Task: inverse folding
């Protein structure tokens, strides 16, 4: 599937008309909750304006359909409003939707806050994922869940425990939806990691929250049924399941759904990283020239980078947006390694140009991206054959770094280095969830002179290029 059909999420023609009604609607909802729809709990009065801000007209429709009792504006006094609201919230769907809104608002505010910080500081995907998870969990727990649970008990420790268990299961599924969009949909529709000052950031951020809303609805249904949440209405109207068999089944289903929610982003990450580059990158520019000596290691990387750029251009011209951005992200990694290893070479200018092209895509300006990419492809990189492959920091410091081929595609991971040899693990599920390695298909020792060491930042990915591939043992 080509995810280019979601390109509109990075275009100002969509983002601005989406958020403008969202901002206006959020202001109206906040005023309505203060003056008219007063029976809602305090936490819900915080949640609904946030939901309407991000979900725009969809959020406003949800508010009117599930949280505002018909005729409440004509009710005389608070008692009559409370009665109308209580009758309205007898519906299980409305009750559960209130729990979902409560969850997504708190978690979503934290996730988007964490995302701004993570993208601004250049975190890698898994660094960003767990940072957003922690910030979202803290926002949801202390700002929203705890406020609700404090209304049910005078014991602060008990309120904390009740808030924690509800937040734990809710957050799993919200982050599964956000993670699925972050690791798979966004990189194949617009390019990985759009920055906060781009249209793509806010378009795909909203889309991730919407997917998170859908993912967490079944979990919140079960949380209401077991009595760990009570949603919109009073606790005494929740009627949780009491039969031991029913409760055991609900707890088992919650555990299975939570486990699936954890697995989904990891599986999608492996699926995307294993996706082949666009047609053309595999062969462009890496052939030898007659009987001449093989290209130097930097020259091989330059040729591979050019191949990825050419493949990205061809894919954009053919309307294959997902293939194009996948190849462009590979080219970015190759250029990052080239600049780090040879800071005064043509790689530095190429890296700047690739970043400009990706920024144009994140701003929804595909014609500009295509024009810049065409100009860059028309001027193949020229790298001195004798340019040395610099080795900053030593080989051992690159343990855990991603190993790339000449095109910037991922091959595996560095396991260590000593005595002029780099130990690499190729293939397999490396760095699952950012900290779990499930093995590799093969391991090799590579001489240092065949390697280009890329950036080794405090935050973000460490990269190593192995342009010539790995020889058979």
Result:
């Amino acid at each position: 599937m080509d995810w280019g059909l979601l390109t509109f999420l990075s275009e100002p023609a969509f983002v601005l008309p989406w958020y403008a009604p969202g901002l206006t609607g959020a202001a109206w909802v906040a005023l309505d909750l203060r003056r008219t729809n007063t029976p809602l709990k305090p936490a819900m009065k915080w949640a609904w304006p946030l939901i309407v801000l991000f979900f725009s007209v969809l959020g406003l429709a949800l508010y009117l359909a599930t949280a505002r009792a018909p005729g409440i504006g004509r009710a005389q006094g608070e008692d009559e409003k409370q009665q109308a609201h209580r009758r309205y919230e007898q519906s299980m769907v409305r009750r559960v939707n209130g729990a979902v809104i409560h969850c997504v608002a708190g978690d979503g505010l934290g996730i988007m806050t964490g995302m701004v910080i993570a993208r601004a500081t250049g975190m890698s995907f898994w660094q960003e994922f767990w940072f957003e998870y922690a910030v979202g969990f803290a926002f949801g727990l202390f700002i929203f869940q705890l406020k609700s649970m404090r209304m049910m008990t005078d014991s602060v420790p008990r309120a904390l425990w009740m808030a924690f268990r509800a937040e734990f299961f809710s957050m799993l599924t919200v982050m599964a939806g956000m993670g699925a969009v972050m690791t798979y949909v966004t990189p194949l529709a617009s390019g990985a990691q759009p920055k906060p000052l781009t249209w793509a950031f806010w378009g795909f951020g909203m889309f991730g929250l919407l997917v998170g809303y859908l993912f967490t609805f079944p979990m919140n249904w079960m949380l209401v049924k077991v009595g760990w949440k009570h949603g919109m209405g009073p606790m005494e109207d929740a009627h949780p399941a009491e039969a031991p068999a029913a409760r055991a089944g609900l707890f088992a289903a919650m555990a299975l759904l939570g486990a699936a929610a954890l697995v989904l982003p990891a599986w999608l990450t492996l699926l995307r990283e294993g996706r082949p580059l666009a047609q053309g990158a595999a062969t462009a520019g890496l052939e030898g020239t007659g009987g001449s000596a093989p290209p130097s290691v930097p020259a091989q990387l330059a040729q591979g980078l050019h191949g990825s750029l050419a493949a990205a251009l061809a894919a954009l011209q053919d309307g294959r947006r997902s293939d194009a951005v996948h190849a462009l992200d590979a080219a970015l990694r190759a250029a990052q390694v080239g600049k780090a290893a040879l800071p005064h070479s043509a790689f530095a200018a190429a890296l700047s140009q690739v970043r400009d092209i990706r920024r144009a895509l994140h701003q929804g300006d595909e014609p500009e991206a295509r024009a810049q990419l065409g100009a860059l492809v028309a001027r193949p990189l020229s790298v001195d054959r004798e340019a040395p492959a610099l080795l900053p920091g030593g080989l051992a410091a690159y343990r855990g770094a991603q190993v790339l081929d000449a095109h910037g595609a991922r091959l595996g991971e560095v396991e260590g280095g000593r005595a002029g040899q780099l130990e690499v693990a190729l293939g397999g599920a490396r760095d699952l969830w950012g900290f779990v390695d499930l093995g590799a298909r093969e391991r090799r020792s590579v001489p240092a002179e065949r390697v280009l060491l890329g950036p080794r930042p405090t935050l973000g990915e460490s990269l190593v290029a192995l342009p010539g591939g790995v020889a058979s043992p």
Remarks:
- Strands lie at 402-404, 410-418, 421-426, 442-447, 452-453, 463-465.
- Residues 156-189 form the longest helix (34 residues).
- The radius of gyration is 26 Å.
- Residues 67 and 352 are 49 Å apart (CA to CA).
